Each structure stands twice: as structure tokens, then as C-alpha cells.
């Protein structure tokens, strides 16, 4: 096939020679022949001439100086890829830490497995250089929220606001730090509002600290307070530093995205956290001896309202949550529960509690041995079948003719009088109930009422279903009570 319009073919090939729209003529003009020292020749093709370069000579670059090499090496060492994920993660199981170290050193495997038992939950901080500051700040507000005490939160707000004087003493201008202070005060207000509204969890705090502007403002405020505290208390920290305190604060405390070290963390706790009665504990995950992480308490060993627990791995801090204690609550069963409550206390002057009239009126339970004469030893020696003896209150419905018979005495030495106690004879007719000894007081023996439920009970001798049924005899000289 032969094309009739060679100009069309030439334009088509010319436009498709290089992708991205670069034409051959542009490439030809872009090459500096004086730099690369190249020559070119034209090769005739059917449609047009394409320049072909021959014998290219590569330009030899001058070697870099030692200072430039060191600068490039430093840039390479300092490069860190951007860490993905939220600034503050939701609370999650500590098993993710165990899974992360499952193929690591055996010491880490053992300690992370034990950590998942003692501290079953964790909260991951984003490793952007602020993880230690963010972990302490979040743990501080989280513990204040779970105290559920608005008075305590307001007290902390006043204490933090009063620390602005430290910033003024070290020369910070108010218009420079007021934005950071406002962010912290706003967070206090949201905590108070959440407590008053009964918000169940700390999800609102997670949203606050995942807002980059709000989170960084709070962290910067805490950085400035820590730096001011260290400058005003240099004697406490200078011995642990290789540089002056002012220089240390300017390079390690106040700049953003500079990770906190041991000295800075102690200063943060001393300045901001210690006055809140909240403890701070660090658990070090390292290769030290033992099967568990190494704890270290940064605050004085005294009673605290709550504890911020930090997990430290080289160069990174996260929050840990210890296992909550569980209690086995055994239900308390009240066996003397009253079936009705429409009765008056039967002797409020003698006892400080209300006795159950249904239990008090059971025959034989309120028998007062002092009301009966002492029996002789032969009668006591031979076992007697249990007899039905009505309670003192029930005796009021019996005539003297049917009162309990008193056994005749025989000539024998009189035994000592019976002590005031419950009968020792056990009956299989019903449950054995042990009453308080106070109910056996003599002045109470005739004050128990006969309740309506007992009148209709088969245990009542006047009831027709009682095996020893005996009708009540009314005497004209006695009125029914």
C-alpha cells in the first residue's frame, strides 16, 4: 500500500515520536552540543529525515567536596517517612503489641505476652516526634474526665491558668502564647460539659487530640510551661544535662516535633502533672532481666486519684491501661423477709429493730422457760415427746382450764433452774430458726401480737387442720383481745 499524501504521514509520525508531546525538533534544539560534544547525521527515511546521534561522550562531573558529602549524608540520616494513622488511636487490645513482637527477641516476646495480661488495653500515639508529649497530655485530660468531678476539673483549670505567670517570668510575651492557652482552656471546658451531660466515654477527647491544630496547641502550651519551669528551677535539672538548661530548653523542649527524653519528661511531670494528684508511671519494654516490663514511677510515692501509664519503647511512647479489679459479689438473702409490712413495731422501746411478727408467733419459738417452774430430775432424765406449747401471746385466748399441764414433782434433789435460752429439743416439723437472744428478754414474753396470718395457720391449735385441734373457749369474765 502506498500513501498518496506524504505530508500527512510525516506529521503523524512527527507527533507520535515521543510520548508526552515532545517532538524531535524540540529534543534536537534542547541538546547542547557544546556540553555533550556530540555530532549527528541525517538518515534518509521514506517520509522524512530523523537526526541520529553518533559517538556520544558523557560529561565528567566534578567530585563533591567533603562538606557537601557530609551534608547529604546528614539529610539521608534525618529523613523519616511520614507515619500513617491517627494522632491518637482508639483504645484497643494489647495483643497487637504481642503480635508486633512475635518474631522478635525472646525477651520481647515474653514481656509483651505478660503485658497483654496485666495491661490488656493500649492507645497508640502517632510517632511524629510529639508522641511523648501527646500521651501525657491526653492521659491527663482522660483521667480528669473519668474522675467525674467537675469541682476537681475547675480547680485544675485555675491551677493551669495561674501558671501563665511562669511564662511571663522567663520573658514570653502574652500575645505569643495566648492562643495555646486558649486551646487548653477550651479542652477543660469540654471536659466539664461532658461530665455534666453524662457522656459515657472519652471519644470526644479522641476527636480533640486528632484535630492537628487543637492537639499541637495543647502540646505547645505544655512545652512552654515545662521550659519555663526548668529555667526557674535549673539546680534540679542541670546535673543531668550536658548543656546549659537554657540551651537544652531551646533545642529539646520548646521546638515542635522534638521527642521528649527522660529529663524533659520528668520536668513535664513536675511542672504540669504533679499538682493534680495524678501519678505518672513508665513501663520500659527492653531486654533487661525478668519476664515483665520494668515499671518506674515519676511522681512521689503517695496516694493518687489516678495514674497515667506509659509504655516506652526506644524512641516512642504509648498509653497503657491496667486490668480493672473484679469483685465476686455474693447475693445476700434475707431469710426473715416479712410477707406484709402493715404492722406496728411490737416493742419499740425494748429493741432498736422491728421483729417479724410471723416468725415471732410460731409456736415454741418464744417460749420463756422462766415462766414455768423448775422440773425434777427424773422428768428431765427421761426423754419426753415434744408437746405443743402456745406462745405467750396465744395463751391469752385459752382459759385456765386448758392451760399447759404442769408435771408433778417427785422427791429428788431439785436441779438448778434452766438458763434463759432456746429449747434444745429439735423438731422435724419445720425449719429450725435461731432467733436473736434479745427477743427472749422476760419483759417481751407477753408483748408479741397474734397476727392474722397465724390465726389462719395450721400451726395454730385453734385451727381445725391442727392435729391437736382445740377450740377456743370464751369466758365471760375475759374480753377478746
From TrEMBL:
Keyword NAD: no
Regions crossing the membrane: none
Compositionally biased spans, kind Pro residues: 402-418
Catalytic activity line of the entry: Thiol-dependent hydrolysis of ester, thioester, amide, peptide and isopeptide bonds formed by the C-terminal Gly of ubiquitin (a 76-residue protein attached to proteins as an intracellular targeting signal)
Top enzyme class: hydrolase
Compositionally biased tracts (Low complexity): 390-401, 419-428
OTU domain mapped to chain residues: 120-323
Keywords per UniProt: Hydrolase, Protease, Thiol protease, Ubl conjugation pathway
GO biological process: protein K48-linked deubiquitination; proteolysis
InterPro entries registered for this protein in UniProt: OTU_dom, Papain-like_cys_pep_sf, Peptidase_C65_otubain, Peptidase_C65_otubain_sub1, Peptidase_C65_otubain_sub2
UniProt-listed Enzyme Commission number(s): 3.4.19.12
Domain of life: Eukaryota
PANTHER family given in the database record: UBIQUITIN THIOESTERASE OTUBAIN-LIKE (PTHR12931:SF15), UBIQUITIN THIOLESTERASE PROTEIN OTUB (PTHR12931)
Name of the protein in its database record: ubiquitinyl hydrolase 1
Native source species: Talaromyces stipitatus (strain ATCC 10500 / CBS 375.48 / QM 6759 / NRRL 1006)
